[in-house]
Amino acid sequence: MITIIEPREFHRLGIAVDDVPSAREWLERILGGVAPSIGRLDMFPGMDSQMVTAGSWPLFLMQGGPVARFLERRGPSVHSYAWMVDDNWETEHFVRDQGIEITGVNIDARLFYMHPKQTNGLLVEWCSTHPTRHRREAAAPRPEPDPGGPGLVGVREMAWSTAVVNDADATATWLERLVHAERVDGNPCGPAAQERTIDLLVGGIVVRLVSPTSSDSRYARAIEEGGARILSFTVRVDDLDAALAILEAEGVPTVYREGSLAATDPKTTLGGVHIDWTQ
Questions:
Q1: Which residue ranges of the chain lie beneath pLDDT 50?
Q2: Fewer CB under 10 Å: which end of the chain, C or N?
Q3: Stated pTM of the model
């Protein structure tokens, strides 16, 4: 019996969008994303989906089906984290033993979600297969993803994904008890007087937990309007000033800048998805 979840690798960052083909085109053109040859993925009935690798991260674009209600409530936005584990059912039993409700179960695809009402707002999926293999095919390491080209903005990598939460310290402690995680220092962040920021390395990606401590924090409005949730992802570029200038020319204005950390207007990125930029 496991005593803590050990993710094998990062599976995907789920992103709910209004138009999958348009979102894919934007990611390919701006971030140099690459869509694998598997094309559309039928994970759930009625859901249109497409995997795009950008900066070595698998980004899973979704619309329709079970994501339709999420889009009605949130609009286009980051939907969920997903990690692969060696034994999905053992992981499910462990999660249930922690008193966490299970939702979104897909037996054929061997995946399930933890209910965000019991996970400090984080919608997290655990799975033991990956979309490049057929359902029920034995789990095996997948080939290294093609990071694609740099795109227009010179992408180096995906730096982290941010979840805005009510209490970053409490959420970090909870997450560290549930899954193997390591604290990471040194990434640029907002003013300490306005928000508490904790970065955790989980299964190959950095999860940033931010809780606003002042109404001046750029996250204050986000949590007031939508509550705790996964809010954004951050792209690391070669030259931040040059990247922001290119984005501006593409109709994507900067709405926040604090040193080497910037945010662009979400209305101009994937129809409403929050994206941060750093170098």
A1: 38-39, 132-142
A2: N
A3: 0.91
